[in-house]
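A quick word before the example. In earlier lectures we treated sequence and structure as two separate objects. From today on, think of them as two lines of the same record. Here is Bll6372 protein written that way.
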Amino acid sequence: MTSEVRLDGKVVIVTGAGGGIGHSIALLMGARGAKVVVNDIGASVSGEGADVGPAQSVATEIRAAGGEAVANTDSVAEAVSANRIVVQALDTFGRIDCVVNNAGILRDRYFHKMSRDEWNAVIKVHLYGAFHVSRAAAPHMREQQGGAFVHMTSTSGLIGNYGQSNYAAAKMGIVGLSKIIALDMHKFNVRSNCISPFAWSRMVGAIPTDTPEQQARVEKVKQMTPDKIAPLAVYLGSDSAAAVNGQVFVVRNNEIMLMSQPRPLRSVQRTEGWTPETIADHAMPAMRASFFDLDRSSDVFCWDPV
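And the structure line, produced from the sequence above:
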């Protein structure tokens, strides 16, 4: 019988923890013994406004259940404020063992209509945010010879989706960031993994429902609650996951999937080299059978969640 997975004595930062997936992760981290820094600026899904209430409410909830937690409302989008999150963890609890990069916003728009502001805002919170908080924590994990990063990615990036070029680019960037953290910090016993969650949240609630197809998609996601994501995040932050590093997982209700990572599928070679014409006549026809379709996430994950 496997022993209970615990995080006693560990200090965990969960960004974007004022609601949804981050809320569930923070609560379970606290219930499993972690001291939790609950970060959330309290902004809207589009990143506007700020309110200390959500972070404070979750921290209070953890303490009421017998855990230890402190609220933080710093933005992950800037290096200086992201560093303050880590400093608060160190000042309050004395160390940092795990960072869950969950904070995010959406500003969906078809690519040919997307503004630079919409692009920059999403990239800064998701990709820059994951970098800033991870970078601030990394030296402390290196010094203590141990730690774990858990980053939230998305099948919008891993597979594709309409109207989310900013979000998809950020989420694929996070996969690359996680892999290099795993490679660079493995010798310090620091791990880095990604979770691609299917769950109802404020961000998913912002998806347009103008068509029957969009309405059906949202109704399907509503069945998948944020508490389904938390167990994997807790496991990845624990010592039980010591051998798990550089991986990408999907959680879809009661399913956990290990995602593939890019590797060569087909190869063609000509001793004399290639010209545009021989590429057209030889290379592309030889590889066409292995081309990927223009799939969206819902095309690949087309079965009902269990």
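Notice the following. The first strand starts at residue 11 and ends at 14. We will return to this example when we discuss secondary structure assignment.
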